């Protein structure tokens, strides 16, 4: 019946071939379903071409150089990164903005690809508009998964849209390093790009309406701001922007409420994301165009038993690793529901993205790095937990002082006193990113503090901060 109205049918249609869509499709194929994935730009999504990979490639050389410069005898203390080499390495990670490799992977995984813009055209039907304007209607026998991600939000500041600002896309795909750059937004993108461009030799100003890295432990943003200022970045917290304008000479002027006028070659807006759901046909099934999609813990859109929303677009956690975690659960549960298999959707079940709720790890690749998992002290208190906060100066750990002269950093452990487990941890310092997974395991595993004393960190590593945190908390008695 439905088939006669459509051009083809698949068990599952995935709209959006970012990291999340690819993983939903892969799990479903592995579970025996036929899957079509629809992509309007590059297979691999934002993360591969304009977000995670190029931004980290832009940051890595500066971090490596400074790490060497902090150890006498390892590097010329006055050396600067070679911007041309950094950009070349960045472009190798984005494969020159070509997706041939990822398309080959889809083929090898048994996932069919349709190039074009996907839109929901009623229950279990997706319409695909190709670049040539042709339209195909495809039936989804079991489910449709939306994994369309986000786009940069343009802030409602007078003049910004007309200024034709850079977003994260231009910032990560740059070919000519600007002499000067003003960044609006002191979140993750703003601070990472401030680090990257300062290293590339750009004069950088960061305008943040609050402190940097809001939502994390306050000391994280403070230590990152200190380090940026030391490297010559003009970090203005509590900045109120009145308007922006593109001058006749091509430069950008930003007027602050206090009367200050700042100028730069480019303006970067890094003020958050909005869901890519404006032109997705949501209204055809009674949902609101342009909204985030509200899902349950199995990533199913509430009230629609055939529709899933996975990754950034559901607003649970705007991170690649967390989106891929959701994708594994979603792909598997779609298979289970399609084949009459058992659904394991309770807390920490195979089909539930439970970690999204209070166990999300994140690394901000600034220098110092910020690595966090779970709840901050403030979030734990808001959740009504009876907590104790334990802080330790990372520079006092033997491994850290060996790692870099003048090592500066801080660690915080948030303990749920009623359960005797860690519910949050934050590390700020050079090379703490790889330390984070130990904390993730402690939080997700709900490892009692009394048992953590038996998890002995090697001497002399930075991980010994765990022992120092436990000692500061106090050793249990028999
Ligand atoms: C500058 C920057 C740096 C970041 N760095 C990190 C990091 O280091 N680590 C991390 O974990 N996260 C990072 N993130 C976040 C990360 O990029 C996202 O969480 C991730 O890309 C989300 O994946 P996704 O598959 O949900 O969406 P996306 O990667 O956005 O992919 C969505 C895909 O859907 C396609 N699409 C959209 N609408 C349609 C349609 N109607 N029809 C067909 N196709 C469509 C898009 O073209 C795109 O390819 C960063 C983000 C930014 C902006
Ligand atoms: N390393 C990583 O994991 C990484 C790196 C980059 C981005 N990301 C993800 O991408 C997402 C987007 O990052 P982002 O930095 O754009 O968002 P964000 O939410 O982290 O920060 C946005 C900042 O813009 C400010 N802001 C918002 N509206 C404003 C306005 N009108 N005027 C002035 N300031 C305004 C906010 O106060 C905030 O400081 C994040 O949620 C993050 O999870 C992750």
Keywords:
binds nicotinamide-adenine-dinucleotide; Enolase-like, domain 1; FAD/NAD(P)-binding domain; single chain; 478 residues; 7-stranded mixed β-sheet; binds flavin-adenine dinucleotide; 5-stranded antiparallel β-sheet; alpha/beta; 21 strands; globular
CATH superfamily of the largest domain: FAD/NAD(P)-binding domain
- Structural class designation: alpha/beta
Count of separate structural domains = 3
Bound molecules: flavin-adenine dinucleotide, nicotinamide-adenine-dinucleotide
Strand content: 15-25%
The fold-level CATH name of the largest domain is: FAD/NAD(P)-binding domain
The averaged pLDDT comes out at 97
Shape: globular
List low-pLDDT spans.
none
Domain FAD/NAD(P)-binding: 10-321
Pfam families: Pyr_redox_2 (PF07992), Pyr_redox_dim (PF02852)
Keywords: FAD, Flavoprotein, NAD, Nucleotide-binding
Binding site for NAD(+): 185-192, 272
Structure write-up:
The chain has three domains: 3-44 and 99-151 and 275-355, FAD/NAD(P)-binding domain; 161-271, FAD/NAD(P)-binding domain; 368-473, Enolase-like, domain 1, CATH 3.30.390.30. Helices cover 31% and strands 24% of the residues. The chain has helices at residues 2-5, 19-30, 45-50, 52-69, 83-93, 100-109, 168-172, 188-200, 218-230, 320-339, 355-358, 377-382, 398-403, 436-444, 449-452, 465-473; strands spanning 8-15, 35-39, 112-115, 117-120, 125-129, 135-146, 150-152, 180-184, 203-208, 234-237, 241-246, 252-256, 261-264, 266-269, 273-275, 307-309, 361-364, 369-374, 387-393, 410-416, 421-429. The strands form five sheets. Strands 1, 2, 3, 4, 5, 6 and 16 form a seven-stranded mixed β-sheet that branches. A hairpin with a 4-residue loop joins strand 20 and strand 21 (421-429). Helix 2 (19-30) packs parallel to helix 10 (320-339), helix 4 runs antiparallel to helix 5 and helix 4 packs across helix 8 (188-200). It is globular. The model has no long low-confidence stretch (mean pLDDT 97). The structure holds flavin-adenine dinucleotide and nicotinamide-adenine-dinucleotide. Residues 155-157, 184-190, 192, 208-210, 214, 270-273, 318-319, 362-365 line the site of nicotinamide-adenine-dinucleotide (NAD). InterPro entries: Class-I_Pyr_Nuc-Dis_Oxidored, FAD/NAD-bd_sf, FAD/NAD-binding_dom, FAD/NAD-linked_Rdtase_dimer_sf, Pyr_nuc-diS_OxRdtase, Pyr_nucl-diS_OxRdtase_dimer. Pfam families: Pyr_redox_2, Pyr_redox_dim. NAD(+) binds at residues 185-192, 272. FAD binds at residues 56, 118, 312.
